[in-house]
Amino acid sequence: MNIPSIAVHGGSGTITSSIEDPKNKKNYLDALQEALEAGFSLLKNDGTALESVMKSVTILEDCELFNAGKGSVFTSKGDHEMDAAVMDGKNLNAGAVAGIKGIKNPVLFAEDIMKNTPFVFLAGNEAMEYARRQEYEILPDSYFFTQLRYDQWTSLRDSGEVKLDHSSDNELKFGTVGAVAVDSEGNLAAATSTGGMTNKAWGRVGDSPLIGAGTYANNKTCAISCTGHGELFIRGVVAYDVSCRMEYGGMSLEQATNEAIFTRLKNLGGQGGLIAVDAQGNISLPFNTEGMYRGMKNNRQTLTKIMH
User: Fold this and answer.
1) What is the mean pLDDT of residues 65-91?
2) What is the CB neighbour count within 10 angstroms for residue 229?
3) Are 189 and 177 in contact (CB under 8 A)?
4) Dist CA 74 CA 195 (whole Å)
5) Cα radius of gyration (the chain)
6) Can you name the residues that pair with 7 across neighbouring β-strands?
7) Distance between terminal CA atoms of the chain?
8) Is the residue at 130 inside a domain?
9) Contact, 290 vs 13, CB < 8 A?
10) Residue 64 placed within a domain
């Protein structure tokens, strides 16, 4: 057995040409490595899978390189709307938020909902009202400002277009973040966080906060965090599809994730990838795009990569 194990991702899709610069590449690899090592350190010291994924994702949310938390993209209104979800495979508890503003770590807000309310999903103004009642610090827009994201937005704001980070014509690509883990007791957990897509309007929500679409964990099967074309992951219920292939079809983690990404998602016309871990600590990181920012670590191996 390979447990404990953890995997993290920072988005899949077109890899910007600037990543070939050794300094830039090192920055992304270092960020992934920091998240990976912090999460695995908890696992090695008898931390839970849930604690591990929360630690890793908050580190990535605090890094402006990725489209989550501090590095979230701009909406059509020039602000930031963030989504996140977390799921505990031990008891199938889950928490999720969508369209929230000013919250430093949306994934921690999602965990709060999971642990302290009878609900799974809160969204928009009502979610923010709950945050204020819980005395969350609401940060100013300036905290979430990055020049890269601003430049992305200004290139689109008068066109009425939106831009998915994974789009092949979007040279400036950095995406959704997520983590999956299994602890020494065989419990699984998954967490995902995103700033959505540049210049989005009408309250658009992707797959990241949707349990079963972009995030899922079940001790019987696996933990999944997805990244890519959200609408297609929703239509394909991709995260839950992987679990179902394992639970009802008897597939291995690798077989199930490959079928989900290279057959089901592809047949829907979708692009993206996912990270997955099962109760034995096996890890799978498939994607059908040019590349995926990803890392994995267990007792046998460590991997941090940006491209194929």
Assistant:
1) 91
2) 26
3) no
4) 8
5) 17
6) 180, 296
7) 26
8) no
9) yes
10) yes
Q: Which residue has the tokens 């199938």?
A: 92
In which residue are the tokens 């999944």 written? 224
Instruction: Print the SS3 string covering 63-125.
Output: CCCCCCHHHCCCCCCCCCCEEEEEEECCCCEEEEEEEECCCCCHHHHHHHHHHHCCCCEEEHH
223/168 Cα distance (integer angstroms): 28
Question: Which residue from 75, 132, 85 is spatially nearest to 106, judged by alpha carbons?
Answer: 85
Contacts of 305 (CB under 8 A, 6+ apart): 293, 294, 295
Domain ranges, residue 31? 5-93+144-305
In eight-state DSSP terms, residue 212 is T
Residue 133 lies in a domain: no
Q: Provide the pLDDT for residue 149.
A: 76
Pure H helices in the chain: 22-44, 49-61, 106-116, 124-133, 147-154, 230-236, 238-247, 253-259, 266-267
pLDDT > 70: what percent of the chain? 88
Q: What's the CA gap between 224 and 232, in Å, rounded?
A: 16
Mean of pLDDT over the chain: 89
* The total number of structural domains that make up the chain: 1
Give domain status of residue 292, yes or no: yes
The confidence score (pLDDT) of residue 167 equals 44
What CATH number is attached to the domain comprising 175?
3.60.20.30
- Which one is catalytic: 14, 48, 176, 304? 176
pTM: 0.92
pLDDT at 161: 55
- The owner of tokens 């993209």 is 73
In this prediction, residue 162 has a pLDDT band, given cuts at 50, 70 and 90, of low
Q: Are strands 177-182 and 5-13 parallel, antiparallel or unpaired?
A: antiparallel
- Concerning whether 176 is annotated as a catalytic residue, the answer is yes
